[in-house]
From TrEMBL:
<keyword id="KW-0862">Zinc</keyword>
<dbReference type="GO" id="GO:0008270">
    <property type="term" value="F:zinc ion binding"/>
</dbReference>
<feature type="binding site">
    <location>
        <position position="165"/>
    </location>
    <ligand>
        <name>GTP</name>
    </ligand>
</feature>
<feature type="binding site">
    <location>
        <position position="79"/>
    </location>
    <ligand>
        <name>Zn(2+)</name>
    </ligand>
</feature>
<keyword id="KW-0686">Riboflavin biosynthesis</keyword>
<dbReference type="GO" id="GO:0005525">
    <property type="term" value="F:GTP binding"/>
</dbReference>
<comment type="pathway">
    <text>Cofactor biosynthesis; riboflavin biosynthesis; 5-amino-6-(D-ribitylamino)uracil from GTP: step 1/4.</text>
</comment>
<comment type="similarity">
    <text>Belongs to the GTP cyclohydrolase II family.</text>
</comment>
<dbReference type="InterPro" id="IPR036144">
    <property type="entry name" value="RibA-like_sf"/>
</dbReference>
<feature type="active site" description="Nucleophile">
    <location>
        <position position="139"/>
    </location>
</feature>
<dbReference type="InterPro" id="IPR000926">
    <property type="entry name" value="RibA"/>
</dbReference>
<dbReference type="GO" id="GO:0003935">
    <property type="term" value="F:GTP cyclohydrolase II activity"/>
</dbReference>
<dbReference type="GO" id="GO:0009231">
    <property type="term" value="P:riboflavin biosynthetic process"/>
</dbReference>
<protein>
    <recommendedName>
        <fullName>GTP cyclohydrolase-2</fullName>
        <ecNumber>3.5.4.25</ecNumber>
    </recommendedName>
</protein>
<feature type="binding site">
    <location>
        <position position="66"/>
    </location>
    <ligand>
        <name>Zn(2+)</name>
    </ligand>
</feature>
<comment type="similarity">
    <text>In the N-terminal section; belongs to the DHBP synthase family.</text>
</comment>
<dbReference type="InterPro" id="IPR032677">
    <property type="entry name" value="GTP_cyclohydro_II"/>
</dbReference>
Amino acid sequence: MSTGPAAAQVRTRVRIPLRFGGEAAGTGVAQAEAVTFTGLSDGLEHLVFVLGDPGPVPLVRLHSECLTGDVFGSARCDCGPQLREAVDRISAAGGYLVYLRQEGRGIGLYNKLDAYALQDGGLDTYAANQALGLPEDARDYTAAAEMLTALGVRRLDLLSNNPDKAAQLTGHGLEVRERVPTGVFATETNVRYLRAKVEHTGHNLTLPGDLGTAGLAG
């Protein structure tokens, strides 16, 4: 892993009120500024949303795109609830939502849906990727480090249960002062997916006792 991110630069900034979030302010709308970039090493169209008033140690969330969860409210994962939580918490604390175009942990939308079909046959989310000849998790957070650096961020609190995100940002020269846990949005339809996160990639999650063994058959 490199010792520092490439010299990405801010391209445009535009204000976008977000209809979800804003609960902390009692408005139901989160005021955000979307930032685009040039010079990102992977060439993808990632975004950063500036929320609240970022201080010298902003709260940051790296959120990988999930069309099914973020847009359509799929109950197979916890991505949608995590995104909405992040907007609200970062709006209150001041910081950045880094929205990464990494559908399906980096394998793409169609491959993710193919993996869903295999999960319906009994495989967990990571084993399904492997059965397709794909990585368990193909995400690289170099571009995230590049965008944060372009915004002048050197030190941050990271809103995440995923230790790999903190490790990768640290490897790119950013200081993660604290890893702040997200909520656990467990239901009978996603508990198997959440348990796989704990078992395969060391996510820091405590599942509710009444759901801890639900949906684990096969």
